[in-house]
Amino acid sequence: MNIFFLFTILVALFSSCPEVEASEAIPVQNISVSFDIGKNLIKGTSVIVLPEGKPADIYTGDLKIISVQRNGQPLNPEIKDGVFRAGPAGTLAIVFEGIFMEKPENKDPSAGKVIGDKGIYLTGRWYPSVEGMAFYSLKALLPDGFRAVSEAEEVTVLDTAYGKEYSFSFPHPTDGITLIAGRYRELKETFGGTDIYGYFSPENISLAKTYFGYVKKYLKMYGKLLIPYPYKRFSIVENFLPDGYSRPTYTLLDQDAVRKPSSAETSFGRELLYQWFGNFIYVDHQKGDWSEGLIAYLSEQLREEQGGHGWQYRKQALTDYANYVNPKKEFPLKEFTAPIDSLSKAIGYGKGAMLFHMLKNHAGGDVFSSALKSFIKENSFRGASWDDLRNTFEIATGKNLEGFFDQWLSRTGVPLIIINDPKVLVLKGVPTVVFDIVQDGDPYILDLTVNIKTDKAEITEKLKVENGKETFEIPVEGNPLRMIIDGNYDIMRKLSKEEYPPVISRLLGDEKRLVLVSDEDKEKYSELMNAMKDAVVKDEYDIRDEDIKTNSLLVFGYGGPVLRRLFGDDRKVGDGFSMEIRKNPLNTSKVIAIASANAKNEVDLSAGEILNYGKYSFVRFKNGKNVQKQTDVTEQGIVVGLDEPVLVIQPQKIVKINEIIPKILHKPIIYIGEQHTNYEDHKVQLKVIMSLHEKGRKFAIGMEMLQMPFQRFINDYLGGAISEKEFLKNTQYFKRWQFDFNLYREIIEYAKAKNIPVIALNLRSEIIKKVSSEGLDSLTDVERGEIPESMDMSDEDYREKLREIFRQHQHSNMEGRNFDNFYQAQILWDETMAHSIDEFLKKNPDSQMVVLAGTGHVMYGYGIPKRTHRLNGKDYVTIVSGTGSVDEDLGDYLYLAESLPPPSALKLGVVLKEKNGKVLVDKIVPGSVAKSVGIKEDDIIVSLDDWKIEDIADVKIFMLDKKRGEKITVKVMRKVFLTGYREFILNGTI
To answer: Which of 234, 384, 525, 548 could join 388 in a cystine, given CB atoms 3.0 to 4.6 angstroms apart?
Structure first.
C-alpha cells in the first residue's frame, strides 16, 4: 500500500466523520493532508460544513483543485482568481494538491509556504478555506523523523507504516489553521495545569530548559495580572525560516532568535501575551488593532517599570514617535492594523502603549487590572475592537471615556506643552510658583504631573489641563529651586528640545537625509550607503550651509571639511566600525551622523546592524559584534529653573590685581575682557601687561581691534619704520574699529617701547559683515580661503546667550537680520581669533600671549578661550570686568575698576561726508576750530598741514595729536561762482 492510497482512506474517514459539529453561524472545516517531501508536494482533502445563511466564498489560492463535491454530489465550480462561490447549508469535500518550494528571494517568508527536507511551513491559504471564523480540525500524515505543531488543545499521534499521523483538535473558532513541522527534538514539562512543549533542532535542544523557565515565569505573572493561561498546552517551536509569530497554543521563533536566549528574556513576555490578546481574544482588524499597544505596555513597559526604568521606556517611545512619524504620512491610532514599518510601529506600539499607560493612571491600577480581566472574559474567541475596550473601562470606572479615547485614537499628532512666564511670588505670605501652561494647537485634556523642588521640600501636584492656555499657582514651602513637568513621561507628547536626544533613529527616520562621501570612501562604506539607499548622495566638498540646515547628514570619517566646519574636532575612536550622532548646530531638529571604520570588512559586517541600534547616540562594532553603546544624557521632563541666586561679594576678601599676578604669571594664555569704551578696563589690561614685562615674561599682545591682513603695518610701526599716523592709516583703524584710539594708545606705545609683539587677531570686517547679513554660503572661494577650516558651532549654551543678545538688539542695529547668520558671524569671529592665537603659539612655543578682546568673547570661556583650548589644549586664565552682572562662572577673576574718563582728542568741529572720493564738509559746529579757521560748508578738505586727506579717517588721525594753541594750515577746494572750484589755503590756531 503506497502513501497516497493511505491518504485516500484517511480523507474518506476524516471527511465523513467531522470531529466538531457545525455551529449555526460558523463553518466547520476538517482538513486531512499528506506530503511528498522530495517533490515539495502536499495532497489533501478539505471538508467544509457551511451553516445556514449567505453563500460563502471558498479561497483556493494557487492550489490545484482535483475535485469538489457538494453534499456527496460532484460539483464543477467556476474558479476565478483563486476563489469560487458555494451555496449555504451544505457540505463541501474538496480534494486538492499543491507544490510549495522555498524561494530564497522571498523577503517575507510569512507570506509564503514551504515544503522541503528542512521542514514544513504552511500559513495563509495553504488549504481551500473560508473567510472569517471557523471551527477547525486537522490530520496530517508526516514522514518518519518529522514532528508537527498546529493550533490544538489536544494532539494525538499514531504510528503507521507510512509515517506518523497527527490529529490536532482546537474546539474554538479561529480565523485559520497553520501547520509547522520539522526534524525536531521534543521536550515536555507541566506547570500549573499547562503542558509546556518544546520543539527544537538537535543543535539547539539544550536551550529548551531556558525557554521553559521563561514560559513558567510569564505564565505565572500574566496568569495573576490577567486570567489564568486559557489553553491546556503551550508549545515553543523553532522555525527553520527567518520568521516568527504567535498562534493559539504555540509561538514560532526564528532560528537566530532561538540562539539568543538572553534577548529572548526581554521579548518572550510579548510572545506569551499574544495567547491572551490576539489568540484568545481576537482582533477586529477592520476597526483597528488595539492588541499591539496593549501587549507592548504589559510586556516591555511593565518589565522596565518593575526595574525602575519605566520612564526611560516611555521617553524612548516619545523619541521614536518624533523620529519616525512624518506628519505627512501620519495616521490616527485607530487606523493602525499591522506593524509594517518604523512609522506604523511608533504609532501602534508606542502611542498605543502610551494610551494604556495613561488609561491606567486615569482609572487607577486596581481598576485597570480588573477591567482587563473583564475584557478578556467578555470577548473570548471573538473579534474585539477599541469600542469594546472603551465600553469595558467605562463600566469599570463609572466614567464616560469617550473624550479620552477620541483624542488619542482619532487625532493625529501629539500635544506640545510649553511653560510660559514661570515666576515665584509671595502670595498671602506664602511662596507660590506661578506659571502658564500653553498647548500649541487644538488643546488636549491632560492629567499633568508637576514636581517642584525647594530647599526644604519636594511637592508633586496633578494638574488638569483642558485649555490652550491656563495659569496655575502652586504654594510651596521654602525657596523653589526648579520645576519638572511630566518627568515620569506619563503623557504622550512632543519632547522639548532639551529632552530630545541625538540618536541613530533620528537619522533613520528623517526623510531629508544627505550622505556626504568622497570618491576614496565610496567603496569602503558601500554597504552602509546601501542601507541609506533613499538618501541623497553628495560630495563632501560641495556641501553648503543651506544643505546642512535642511537635512540630517551622514558623513564618513572624522576630520572632513564639514565636521571641521561645524565641530572643529578631529577625534579618534577605537578600532572596528562606529557611528556617532550629534545635534546639527545649524538646525537642532536635525542630526549629524559620523560613521568611521578602519577597514571595509568592518563596515560590511556591521552596517546592517545599525537599524537595530536606533536608540543609541554612539555604537561601536568589532568583527561584527557590538562592543560599545551609549545614549547621550538629556533632560528628564520639561525642566524649568526657578532659583536666581543673589551673589554677594565680601569686600574683606577682595584682592588687588597685583596680588593675582603670581597666580597667572605662567599661564600660556591670559584673556582680559573689556567693555570697549571703558577706559578703566584698558588701564587694567595695561597694568597686567606691565606686570608681566617687569617679571621678565616673554609674551605677545593679541588684539581683537586689529585685523590680520594689516599685520605687516603693525610690525613696521613697532619697529619704527613708519609713524603712528601711517600705522593708523595703513591698518585702517578708524574705518574698521571706530572706537577712540586713545583707549588703546598707551598699550600699543608700551608694546613699542618694550619690544613686545602685537598680534592682529581679527578677520577682515568685510567678511564678518557679509556672513552676518547673508551667511557663510555667501562667501566666495577666495573669501573662504581666509576663514578657518575648523569651527565648533555645537555649543548650545553659547548659542542661547547669543540668541538673547540678538533679541535685545533686534529692534535696533540688528533689525531685519537673521539670527542664524548672526550666530555664524559670531562663531567665525571667535574661531578666527582662536586660530590666530594658536598659530602664533605654535610658531613661538616659548612665548605667552595676553589676549585683549570684548567681554562677550571671553566670559564663560564660550567665545575664544574654549576654542583655542580645543586647538592646542593649553592652559589659560580669564579676567573679566565685573561691573555688569556678577556670575560665579563669568571668569576666573572679575575685576572692579573705578570709572575713568578717557584721554580726549581735539575735534576739528565738522560733520563730514565722502563723495566721489572726496571729503566734503556737511556742517560746521558753532565755536569750533573749523569755524575759527574759516572752513565753510561744502568745502572739500584736501590736506591738514602736510597730511593728505583721502577719507574721513585721515581727519581723525591728524587731530589725534593736536593740542590747544597749535597752528594749523588747511587746504580746501571751494566752489566759486561762475569759475567752479578753486583752492584756498586757510591758516588758524587750534
So the answer is: 384
